[in-house]
Amino acid sequence: xxxxxxxxxxxxxxxxxxxxxxxxxxxxxxxxxxxxxxxxxxxxxxxxxxxxxxxxxxxxxxxxxxxxxxxxxxxxxxxxxxxxxxxxxxxxxxxxxxxxxxx
Length: 103
Description:
Elements: H1 3-26, E1 28-33, E2 38-43, E3 48-53, H2 63-92
Antiparallel strand pairs: 1-2, 2-3
Helix pairs in contact: 1-2
């Protein structure tokens, strides 16, 4: 394979990766804890954009449980975004080329 062709393929791959990253950043991922009593939505960039808490969980003395449920839901939403990004970016790589540095 000549060097010019390889350079062109690398540029095309880079452009596809940039477009895919922008698309992934705009996606939203929802996760739940406690059977849906706590719901978190995060972007593909890992930013929390929404948090819903069932008022039934707001009992006095249950603060630690509520905090744990919130952390669980937020972490799961962010992890879903990361897993989706890894899967989608992995599809861009030609077989045998390894991973994309920096992704």
